[in-house]
Amino acid sequence: MGKKAILLGASGLIGTHLLSLLLNSSTYDQVLILVRKELDVQHPKLRQLVVDFELLNQYAHEIKGDVVFCCLGTTKSKTPDPAQYRKIDLQYPLDVAWIAQSNGAAQYHLVSALGANRNSSIFYSKLKGEAEHELKAVPFKAIHIYQPSLLDGDRKESRFGERTMIRVMHVLNPLLIGPLKKYRSIKVSKVAMAMFRKSTEEHKGIYTYTSEQIETIGS
Hints:
By secondary structure, this protein is α/β, with parallel strands linked by helices. The chain is 36% helix and 20% strand.
């Protein structure tokens, strides 16, 4: 019998790729996605659970699976309110972690970010670091944390600054060698593939992967 996956952030840049991998894999028989509104995706394995993330405990009896994948995240342009930003990047992922683990989930895979550090003076890096730190307190058999650098992929919304940075990184990537390799931009498809591949392995413990390591695993 195959596994059941729980996926947060299925409509996002990495989540879209990961959802496709999960649905088309023989490893997973069911894929449960938690969404604010239903996605225009249909598949025999897919179940969409429309939730109010402020009231996740009300859906606890339905948030059951073997492996949790969290690709949830936002941006300042989408969520200028720091308190709401914190809920999306930290509170909701942790709420689901505790619920799923209490329901028997064994693994949790979190998309964090390069430079995550709970002691950082930078809001984004500090928040990601806090999320990593708090997740480690949840007693999963295995926790996998992915710290990608600049994500290279086709976004639904247009961001001029990021498009420009990606073009620049295409030129700089070959120059970033040795310990600087982790700063190279990375394809979102490789992050998704790394998460999928690690989920098929029966490891125990807490693992953190830098962008360079994600590149290798996802290639």
